[in-house]
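Researcher: Structure prediction, please.
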Amino acid sequence: MINLKLAFRMLFKTPFVTLVAIVSLSMGIGANAAIFSLFNQMLLRALPVQEPQRLINFAAPGPKPGSQSCNQSGDCDAVFSYPMFRDLESVQTVCTGIAAHRLFGANLAARGQTLKGDGALVSGSYFPVLGVRPALGRLLGADDDRTIGESHVVVLSHSYWQTRFGSDPGVLNQPLIVNGQEMTIVGVAPRAFDGTTIGAKPEVFVPITMRGLMQPGFKGFDDRRNYWAYLFGRLKPGVPLEQARAALNGQYHAIINDVEAPLQKGMSEQTMARFRAKPMLVDRGVRGQSTISAGSKEPLTLLMGVTAFVLIIACANVANLLLARGAARGSEMAVRLSIGASRWQLVSQLLAESCLLALFAGFASLLVARWTLDLIASLLPAQVGEILQFEIDLPVLVFSAALTLGTGLLFGLFPAMHSTRPDLISSLKGQAGQPSGARSASRFRTALATAQIALSLALLVAAGLFLKSLFNVSRVDLGLKVDNVITFGISPALNGYTPERSRQLFEQVEDELAALPGVTGVTGAVV
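Model: Predicted structure follows.
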């Protein structure tokens, strides 16, 4: 407590130095906290499910004769045929269960209003494998996907239940029309659960056996050459990943060689050899499945590195300030040492000052982080705001606290160690306190200044290159005028409209839009 009181007194004794240090550190810590918020969401955050560390993802690279369909849950190496999913589900012995899922576009009609959204086709094992519990009603289970096209039931996401139905507990057993099919609402997913694909937030969860009705024209349930389902599983307790990988690959190869290889026609010997030997990849699934994570890893890592440079520069700046102030306090340290104070007491006192300085900067950094996140949100497309949460949550607060403590020790340790070993005789005679200080301190300050200049130059060069690239992109001639242009889309086919009826509806919408005041032209295409 005494050290804390003395630290307060010394910081307010030199308000200008204190203010400069707080501003420098808050900028560095705040920028790091803001980027960490995005980094955590995209690359670190585990799924909000029971024991996510036991989840594993499956992928099947190699020859895939037939048709492949993939989306943001993963590339086409990760998709399986529906029959393969059912085969693996029945023969595997190392998982408590295997689940399949697939995202799809959905027209959702309830209480007289139709809105476009997203949905997830999930197997009956999906929610049991994840170990999540419903917020209301029940979730989909094994009885909901036994027969193709017969389970007209749907589970709402928690956010959709809140925004569309006002958290009405009476929503159970009410109808919801999904892509023209009347479904019965049987439950609501838990809060903060948005499926297993990063960047996707499905409003509804529908049995995977309903895909033929949700996406008219689909007939791939019995076709082993139609690859479209994403798979994951949960390891049994005590089963290591390597054991599971070996066991699942053995069962997968047995199905490939005994069932699927004989069905392949017109395949060359080399391709058939590759087909029979293709592996099934089994990796950790703690963060779910998504192509966004892989695509965002490099830019987010680069941003974290840039903000780390900013913080290092700030720490070097503050360390220089503390060294200069420590040189001016040489006589004080010498007097305290001469009357019996231990060096550890003085080091702890100076570290308390630097940590208190970092603490003030840590509080100020929360404002900087908030402003930085708001700035990033304003620069990104609106669709990104539906994927990312630009907020300061508990992990960000913990990260900021750890960073604050670490920086307090980082920039305060050497000045504290140096300031507590003065030349007692010369200091007591009043010859201490010279700006240059001891030779080691002078070398250290020179090194800090050199590092600051080098890092600042590197950041300036990177920023200049980025601005030049941004300027070049903004000047690209698109070959058309984009001022006052708006775009939108409709999906009549999802509601069961025939191609001819969809075209008629499009022409009707086109005519009505062209008649609106202020509209100079309307054009589009039916796909």
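Model: The longest helix spans residues 291-328.
Researcher: Thanks, that helps.
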